[in-house]
């Protein structure tokens, strides 16, 4: 696949994948899904190809998002149709579910990160 934010090949794969292109078109032309708070970072579109899916890829990706949010004192959120991903975020990343709704015939789960401000280390003042 390409490099962030998007490469031509990434877009080609998305539009050539039946079902995915229709869902993306619906998502991009519909009113936005609810946000948990005004300044939260939206993990709007994250697709990981099946050949590299797994905890390490997701961990590395979410670590970058979390580092960005810590530096800016913000939270991040995501929408997913996967109860497994929702549960993984809630247990592994200490997020919480902030909403659940039906979108395009699919149950969607909104998760938001915990407060990411890091407590100061007492002996460092």
How would you portray this structure in words?
- The protein is of the alpha+beta class.
- It folds into two domains: 1-30, no CATH class; 36-124, Gcn5-related N-acetyltransferase (GNAT) (Aminopeptidase), CATH 3.40.630.30.
- The chain is 38% helix and 18% strand.
- The chain has four helices and four strands; from the N terminus they run H-H-E-H-E-H-E-E.
- The protein has helices spanning 8-16, 20-29, 55-72, 83-92, and strands at residues 41-42, 76-80, 96-103, 106-112.
- The protein has a four-stranded mixed sheet, with helices on one face.
- The radius of gyration is 16 Å and the shape is globular.
- The relative contact order is 0.14.
- The model is unreliable at 119-125 (pLDDT under 50).
* Helix-strand category: alpha+beta
CATH class of the largest domain: Alpha Beta
Oligomer: single chain
Q: Provide the succession of SSEs.
A: HHEHEHEE
- The strands making up the biggest β-sheet line up spatially as 1-2-4-3
For the record, the count of structural domains works out to 2
Alpha carbon gap, first and last residue = 45 Å
Mean pLDDT comes to: 78
Uncertain segments of ≥5 residues (pLDDT<50)? 119-125
**Main beta sheet, described?**
4 strands, mixed
Helix content: 25-40%
How much is the radius of gyration in Å?
A: 16 Å
| CATH homologous superfamily identity of the largest domain | Gcn5-related N-acetyltransferase (GNAT)
Number of strands: 4
CATH topology of the largest domain: Aminopeptidase
- What's the overall geometry? globular
